[in-house]
Amino acid sequence: MTIYGVALLALAFILGQWVGVLLGDWLGIQANVGGVGFAMIFLMLGKEWLVQKNQMSPEMTGGIAFWSKMYIPVVIAMAASLNVKSAVSSGSLALIAGIIPVLAGFLIFPWIMQKFHPRHHG
């Protein structure tokens, strides 16, 4: 079952990167804009959907936790270095492109919390 957690993480990453590239193209810059952030949103949505459907096993949770501890920091570091290069060469458009995913996150997160009612572990 651990492999399913890794598969969910991989799917979220791929979807996030795809949305980041689409957003970059839409803004007219040849860069991935917010792909890692979108991947995290997709991972949260996927995990909460599985929890609601009672499909999230402890092994799957372990697979997600293992790779998130190892993989996500590396991806964020790589994406950050690419984003800095793009931002320096793009000027004010990069600032606008950075603000859009943040605002989208602030607008979508309350809906996610309301819709999925995440369980509190403690």
From TrEMBL:
GO (cellular component) term, any one: membrane
InterPro entries: Maln_transptMadL
Annotated TM spans: 66-84, 90-112
Pfam family, one: MadL
Keywords tagged on the record: Membrane, Transmembrane, Transmembrane helix
UniProt name for this protein: Malonate transporter subunit MadL
Species assigned in the record: Algoriphagus formosus
Lineage: Bacteria, Pseudomonadati, Bacteroidota, Cytophagia, Cytophagales
